[in-house]
Design brief:
The chain is of the alpha+beta class. It folds into two domains: 1-45, no CATH class; 52-208, Glutaredoxin (3-Layer(aba) Sandwich), CATH 3.40.30.10. It has ten helices and five strands; from the N terminus they run αααββαβαααααββα. The protein has helices spanning 6-16, 22-25, 39-44, 69-84, 100-111, 118-127, 135-142, 149-158, 160-176, 198-212, and strands at residues 50-52, 58-64, 88-94, 184-187, 190-192. The protein has a five-stranded mixed β-sheet with strand order 1-3-2-4-5.
Length: 214
């Protein structure tokens, strides 16, 4: 089994202790042998869906599951945060840990990415506020959005391998970081392992900004 490089371990230590500058830790030593475990893979994987301001000064990486009650609770709070703070870049890490329906929901949301509708499907799946219990229910929720359902179903098949690869990278990162469950938020160099209210997220972003100033 491969292990993290020393720069990545240094980063994780800084995250766990709520201090350190993640962007600089990766420059100290040569990159890890596993390309999925670099800071670039965590923050800048071109296949991973993103939101907010692509040039934001603070990046929030969210590890979530569409059947996680606390993820559903956090969703509207994050939406308010993004509307009020235009300096935030979001990275969405679909990490389905609540069973097959969660996995299918993640696949459906990621398939919508190929028609530019990941965000609306993502938001709709989290807005239910309750557990999704079947594939049909997941598709019915997706159908309430502007997504082209015929194309979505086609993309689910055509991009099956790509979708599986995205989730495999996310799972590998979460496992190697020993994340305890969902939701997990990496707010700049800070790790937040709970669903915060708006005031709490704003405080975390402010703290992150203070730590990443040059």
């Amino acid at each position: 089994m491969r292990s993290f490089s020393r720069p990545f371990l240094a980063l994780l230590a800084s995250l766990a202790l709520f201090h350190g500058i993640a962007a600089r830790a990766d420059d100290l030593l040569p990159p890890p042998k596993d390309p999925d475990l670099t800071m670039g893979a965590l923050l800048r994987d071109p296949a991973t869906p993103t939101g907010g301001n692509p040039k934001g000064d603070v990046t929030i990486v969210e590890f979530f599951d569409y059947n996680c009650p606390f993820c559903m609770k956090s969703a509207p709070v994050l939406q308010k945060l993004l509307k009020q703070d235009h300096g935030i870049r979001m990275v969405y890490k679909d990490w389905p840990i609540f069973g097959p329906v969660s996995k299918y929901a993640a696949e459906v949301a990621l398939a919508a990415k190929w028609q530019g509708d990941y965000q609306v499907v993502h938001d709709a799946l989290l807005a239910t506020g309750k557990r999704k219990i079947s594939r049909d229910q997941v598709l019915a929720i997706a159908a309430t959005t502007p997504v082209d359902m015929a194309r979505l179903k086609s993309d689910l098949v055509a991009h099956r391998a790509d979708i599986a690869a995205i989730m495999a990278r996310t799972s590998k990162q979460a496992d190697r970081m020993h994340l305890p469950g969902t939701p997990i938020f990496l707010v700049g160099p800070l790790l937040v392992n709970q669903a915060l209210d708006l005031k709490g997220f704003k405080a975390a972003v402010a703290q992150a900004r203070a730590k990443i100033k040059p």
